[in-house]
Amino acid sequence: MKSSDKIKIEGYSIGRGHRPFIIAEMSGNHNQSLERALKIVDAAAESGAHAIKLQTYTADTMTIDINTGEFFIDDPGSLWKGRSLYDLYKEAFTPWEWHKTIFDRCKELGLVAFSTPFDETAVDFLESLDVPCYKIASFENTDISLVRKVATTGKPLIISTGMATAAELDETVREARKSGCRDIVLLKCTSTYPASPINTNLFTIPHMRELFDCQAGLSDHTMGVGTALAAVALGATVIEKHFTLSRADGGVDSEFSIEPDELRQLVAESERVWQALGRISYGPTEAEKNSLRHRRSLYVVEDMKEGELLSNQNLRAIRPGLGLPTKYMANLLGKKVRRDIKKGTAVTWDLVID
Fold first, then answer.
1. For residue range 116-165, what is the model confidence (pLDDT) as tens digits?
2. Of 20, 115, 117, 301, which alpha carbon lies 20 to 30 A from 44's?
3. Going from the N-terminus, what domains does the chain have, and what CATH number goes with each?
4. From start to end of 111-270, where are the E strands?
5. Computed from CA positions of residues 89, 91, 96, 100, in that sequence, does the dihedral angle turn out positive or negative?
């Protein structure tokens, strides 16, 4: 078996032979309320998601407290324009003391619970909670020391590929495998918030799967669920979407997050897309065999006497399909019938005289 064929995470199998694994990304959508965070977990479970993902960092492990220059967000199109990195991360981070409570709720509800660590102290902390797998964020996918640290746990590693070149991903995957990680999922990702479908380039997913011999999926920042469903049609086995109770509630990531009804739709429709992929198949399926009788075939459409000639008036291609195939029409025209025939008789070779 190739290493890309299947990955196990707790009770779930991830691979093309299994329904897509749907991750609800909480991120900062808890709005600094543990009660809201637990409601997000409950809503994700009710909507049919398979996993909840947190982010494990503090403002101080991400950056330093400076609100000028390159530490200040002034990108015209950014949702967070006018804020310092430090203040943004201070608002968005998930308090570390909440993690166990959130993970315990996930366990009660049958959800896989894991996180994205952003530095080595976060990995050590998450190991103390015995997470079943890890995520590497797009902005950290070239942080080789962090990748090595996570890989030494031997647990499955999900890596978002936003902004990374093929060469950078090659180095990341090689170092992860060298450090002890056998199971890797690469998620196609566009690191804009929200992302445009035009910049999503889903055809990269099957190429990435073959190039790196691993599972491939999508970390999706586009609006709605259409892009994610298209990814499943192209072989994505993992879909990650930011999730909130309601975009109207606000929050650092709310604008490009999906709500419970959309998550429910994503879970249901992604499974339908996966089921529809099937295999390469020609000819009638077992379910279609009864429909074969409704094809067109050759029928006598007027009462005929023995010795009369078949013509375009008394011989037609109609439904159902119990007569000779329509391709024999020309062969039969002008032939004599060997007995009286009633209108509506399916034509067989023994009805005609050669």
1. 999 999 999 999 999 999 999 999 999 999 999 999 999 999 999 999 99
2. 117
3. 16-57+93-277 (3.20.20.70), 286-353 (3.90.1210.10)
4. 112-117, 134-136, 157-160, 184-189, 215-220, 238-242
5. negative
